[in-house]
Amino acid sequence: MLTKQDLVQHEEYLKLNELGEFVIDIDEDLEIIDFHTHMCNVLPIKHIDPNSKGNKLTFPTLPPIEKTDFSVPYWTKEELNINQKGIMPVFRYVKNAYAVLQDVKKGGTYDNCFKSQADNKIVLNVVLPLSTKKCDCSPEALRIAADYPSRFVAFCSVHPDDPEMKKKIVKYKGLGAKGLKLKISDIELKNDFSSLVTLFRTCHEAELPVILHTGSIPVDQERTSKLLWKFLRSTRVELFGHLLKEMPKDFVFIFGHSGVCEYKLVAEYLKKFPSSYAELSSQSQHSIRYLIDEVGYERLLFGSDWPALPQAITLSRVLIATSENKDARDHILSKNAKKLLKQ
Q: I need a labelling partner for 47 at 20 to 30 A (CA). Which of 53, 143, 167, 265 fits?
C-alpha cells in the first residue's frame, strides 16, 4: 500500500515533518508571501476559538495517496465517484465538502498556522474571509491582521447583494483591508451579474484588488449527474473573465486557483486584461510553467488555500517550476504580492 513517505520519496522540494505533514525541503533562504489563506474564524460557519491548541489538520480536500498525482492541477487522478450518474456522486461530494469545512473549523488555528508558516518559510499570510449575505466575516479577518501585523494582512469580503456594500468596502479599506475576496456562483446570482459588476466598480474606485474563486475540478459532463455538473461549473472561468470586458483596463482582478483545470483559459484572459493576475493554489508544476511561458511571471501569485490544503504542496510546485529562473521564483513568491499589497 502506497504511503505518504513513498509519495514524497521522489518529489523534489517536498518532505514530511515529524508529524507526517507535508513541508517544503529546501535550505535556501526565501521570502514567501502566501496570497491565499483562511482561518477558522473568517468563514461563515460556527467555529472554535482560533487560540485553541491541539487540533490537528487532516486535509480531507487532498485525494487519497493512491490517487494523488502532483503533475496535474488539484493533484488528483480521475475521480470515478464524481464521474457517475445518479444522486450518489452528489452525496459523496457534499459529504466531502462538509468534512473539509469541519477540518478547517477545528484546525484553522493560530497554533497550526504559525507552525505551518515556520515549517514552510512563509513570512506573511494574506487572510481571505468569505462572507455571505447573512454573515459578514471581514471584521474577524481585520482583527487577525491587527493582532498579528507581522504575520498577516487581511482582505475584506462583502457580498454584492449586501445593501451596505459600498459603505462597507470604503469602511474596511480604512480599517486596513488590502483587497476583497469572494466565492460566488452563477447559481447564487441567478445569472444576473449586475450587482457583481457594481461591486467590481466600487473596488476599482477604492483601489482594491479583487480575488474570486474561479474554476473547478475536472468533471465529465456526459458521465456526471446534471445537478453536480451544474454546481461544479457555476464558478467557471469564463463567467468572470467575460465581466472584465465591462471594467476599466486598470481594474485589478485575481483569478483564484488560476481556474484550477481551466488555467489555459486564465492565461488567455491575462493576455487580454493586463491588470489581471493568477493565484496558483492547487496548480501543478506543469501548469505553472505553462502560465510562465504564456504570460510571464510578473502577474503570478503563490497561494496555498491553507488550511483547506497544505502550504507546502503548491509551494513545492512553484519551486520546481522556477528551479532554473530565480527572478521568476522571487516574483511569484513575494515580489508580485508586495506590489499588489503596496508593501
A: 167
